[in-house]
Specification:
The complex is a heterotrimer of chains A (327), B (285) and C (323).
Chain A (H helix, E strand, L loop, with lengths): L4 E12 L6 E13 L4 E5 L6 H8 L7 E6 L2 E2 L6 H6 E4 L13 H11 L8 H11 L16 H14 L4 E5 L7 H18 L2 E6 L2 H7 L2 E6 L2 E7 H6 L4 H9 L39 H5 L5 E2 L3 E2 L20
Helix pairs in contact in A: 3-4, 3-5, 4-5, 5-6
Chain B lengths: L24 H23 L31 H37 L1 H16 L2 H12 L3 H27 L3 H8 L4 H38 L10 H8 L8 H29 L1
Chain C lengths: L2 E12 L9 E9 L3 E5 L6 H8 L7 E3 L3 E6 L2 E4 L2 H4 L4 E5 L12 H13 L3 H14 L5 H4 L9 H14 L4 E5 L7 H18 L2 E6 L2 H7 L2 E6 L2 E7 H6 L4 H9 L38 H5 L5 E2 L7 E2 L9
Parallel strand pairs in C: 3-9, 3-10, 7-8, 8-9
Antiparallel strand pairs in C: 1-2, 1-4, 1-5, 5-6, 10-11, 11-13, 12-13
Helix pairs in contact in C: 3-4, 3-6, 4-6
Chain lengths: 327, 285, 323
Amino acid sequence: MSNWLSVQNLSVDFVVGGGRAPSVLRALRSVSMDIEKGTVFGIVGESGCGKSTLARVLSGLTAPTDGQVLLGGKPLGMDRDKAQRRRIQMVFQDPGSSLNPAMSVRSMLSQLLSFHQIVPRDQIEARCRALMAQVNMPVDALDKKPGSLSGGQRQRIAIARALALEPEILIADEPTAALDVSVQASVLNLLSDLIRDLRMTMIFISHDMAVVRRVCDRMAVMYLGQIVETGPTGAVFEDPRHPYTNALMAAVPRLVPRAAGDYQMLKSEQPSPLARIEGCTFRGRCPKAGPVCATLAPGLDGGAHRVSCHFPRAGTNPVTEGSSHGH
Amino acid sequence: MTDHSGFTVPTEAPAVRAPRKRLPGKARFGLAIIALYVLAGVFGPMLLPFDPDAANILQRLRPPSAQHWLGTDQLGRDFLVRLLYAIRIDLPVAFLAAFFPMLIGTALGAVAGFFGRIPDIVVSRSADIVQAFPVYVFLLVLVFALGSGATSFILAATVIAWVGYARLVRGEVMRLREMEFVAAARVSGLPPMRILATHVLPNALPQTMIYFMSDIVMMVLVLSSLSFLGVGIQPPTAEWGRMIAEGQPFLRSQWILSVAPGLMLMMFGIALSLVADGLDEWSRK
Amino acid sequence: MTRILEIADLRVDLSRAEPRVSPVGPVDLWLDAGECLGIVGESGSGKSLTLKAILDLLPDGLTRGTGTQKIAQGGKLVPTDPRRLRGAKISMISQEPAAALDPLMRIGDLIGEIVRHHSGCSWAEARLRAVDLLRRVGVPDPETRARFWPHELSGGLKQRVVISMALACQSDILLCDEPTTALDVTIQAQIVDLLRDLQVNDGLGLIFVTHDLALIRQIADRICIMYAGLIVETGPSAEIFSNPQHPYTRALLSALPDIEQSEGRQVPIEGTPPAATAFPQGCRFAPRCLRASDVCRQAAPALLATEDAQGVKVACHHTGDVT
């Protein structure tokens, strides 16, 4: 089912600053995407692009201002019942604050297992131990509080918490950003193995492109609340169409220097997300912006590999996009 | 190559903080003193066969002797026994006078801080109203209205003192509710009240406990002050503040009658403050 | 290549430890004019402390051990007190630029103050110079921006301002302590480009500390890999990356995903870095090293040049072994 988890025209606005002149922060601007069951979908973007807000809407923490999320055809809003809540779980970025410092691991897991009645009362302890094994943690970790665990260990516990509810979808919001390099590998390997073994769907949010390339089947690139490009991971990396994607790929430091291409470094900074921008939000920094970009916002056009741009790069990808204002 | 994230090998340096934190020396010392008071209050009177309220004018104002270790007071009652009996009044009453406000104030503050909007408005404005009155005036008014004695005092204290706890807990809860583990609990499907009770409040408790310890000290002093003024615990019941007042006319001859209860009060207050201080340090480590 | 900095036997000691406990050192460093030296390591490797020790800016509880430090003055290398170098010959930028900017001063004045301190010119001239410096570091519309308050600037702009303050000191060397870690990758690319520009065109020497191996590959001419307070491998950047010799360097490279590769699993490194109070006798990486043997556990290997020279030095008993 290619549109099992479907996001349709999702917009989220926040009102910031009170007083006489409150402004509107448009965190998500009419975002649409479809995620196939059993795949790993990556979302990349820099700060302010809206990826965390998207995660919060999907996990039911934030209400959309407009648009909807559909799971298996049925709308999934903020008012979810217990069963619906179980289906989507999240691993947060900072394991230091995403675990309750006053609760032992056992208490935390037991509470969830008994609240959702996942196993009968007398099997809760056994299930806790099994969860520890699943995330490669020793059983005595159950007695510990987060304060006595290292960053990598805490993140494993956070993964165990998410798994305890047997979700169908796991959202990983920058799961390794706060960890040391040598530990990132073990947490990422764990996530990949679990996704494969448990046949879950994962939404992997990251600013680290190298990791996304390895882990994800399909991906979306976000900028200032919109998706600018989306498609199979390999295609987007090898053949970025949107000027922003291109600049992003080029800006990532590489262990092996990149061959010279039409790499253009972005010269300026992002505009404020409070700004009202007519037309394409990227045009202020875009090396290819033309007059039409100031008046008309491009839609997200194309087949499997889609771009939101009036002047996308000519692709080597045989599935060409059809932009209504193509060059 | 194998994945080295095995069972028993930690993959990186553990957190710096040690899992067990010891209560600092001053807190343990304070607790020891409080324990002594409790023991003295419970067992002391049993060991000394005097009735604290039985007046015996012929024996009034005697200095310390083999029979009366601290002498007698102005009505001939054994002084030491009265001091010990006073523990049975001051400690429990002060404790309860701090305990009920803590229960009510914590609950109200937690709800106000967590849910915001209407609950917050109701609780905060009520707190403002209570605080608008000068404390002792309010207290005296209530005590006059309710009559004097231990029960009225506890009731009056509850009406006034819940505000401190409510403000404290409200602030803590507002801070904690923004933390990611609360968001994680919501994603897990736990309902808001349960999150508040099982996740948020346990983290707010250390601060509340510290405040509670200091509050007991306050209550002891307030109770003694009111009794000194004659509107708290009524005679002939032994109570430190009352005893200080009753000993006033005899400061020249039997000064121990005022000084001893004062010292008892002071040491108890210091002991509680040490415990509060120690708890504060312990929670910061 | 003129050498502008030479440090020998640099150590950072715990202030009140008897016998001596050194979380960092001994470490030898040098820098040539217009060169970028990269120091790479994970958290706990001591890379930040090393940088801070150069200017004796260590936090409470740590002191700089004895060791010599020479800086170029009038064409010769002369021993100097590190404290006199601060804000003069050597400047520093770090991960949190906001901490270096007084929130109560407009940025033009912040830079102007430094210019005046170093050149003694008038306020008016200092302000003009400040605008020039802002232009030099790529701040758009510098005349207007000079009137901004620090909180009105984005992270990338703040970092540029801090770099311009270092330039105002007319420093020969800029120490960079993870300056781009908190920045978006496109902004990081801009800052790295700026630093490269200053290095190549203005002859600014850089010592750049980071945990990001790929980033160091981009910016550094020569690199040092640090582990548990010591340099385990050093040499020209290209050499180290094409032919890593130390087991830790190799392990680090295997642990990283590279954007060019879509296949393969990263390999985590088993074990824990040792705490400074419990450094093992012998090689500090031995407990985690797959190649460790008895000699490794007994004797600490020295940092020695490899047989095929190329400027690479490795601290390992087993270099030259084929794996």
